[in-house]
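step: validate -> pass
step: tokenize input -> pass
step: predict -> running
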Amino acid sequence: MSRTRVTLATEERSGMSQGYDTEGKETQYWYNRLAEPAGGIRSTTLDLLKFIQTQIAGTDSASEMSHALTFGDRTDGVGLNWDISTTRKGYVRWSHDGGTDGFTALCMIYPELRSGLVLLTNNGDHQDQTFFDVGTTIYRCLAEARH
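step: predict -> pass
step: emit ->
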């Protein structure tokens, strides 16, 4: 993941998307030196796909540890930074979402399907259930393609 970082060089900042709030007004980029990992990590789509591949591969001890349940069970639990659940078809799902003003990100990984997805938007409210619903709809298409 060579293009993922907290601090961007000046030339890298010019390639960032502009965020917009729910009324369509431009938002400021979120910088919080005290909580940089919580909303301050910048990445590329290629690096995010590499991240998913590493999670699925099961060859990285840190990734494996993050999938271990720390609360709840496989139907509705939490690992280290992952919500862990089981779909109606019985597949395990690891998911994590978040956002800052004007940006939303959602990652859903289905290890048994060897598939994952990342949804990104530069408009709206990261608490919007619709965003999660879009990810779930994509999963259903993946699951149906397996049968």
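step: describe -> The chain has one domain: 16-145.
step: cleanup -> pass
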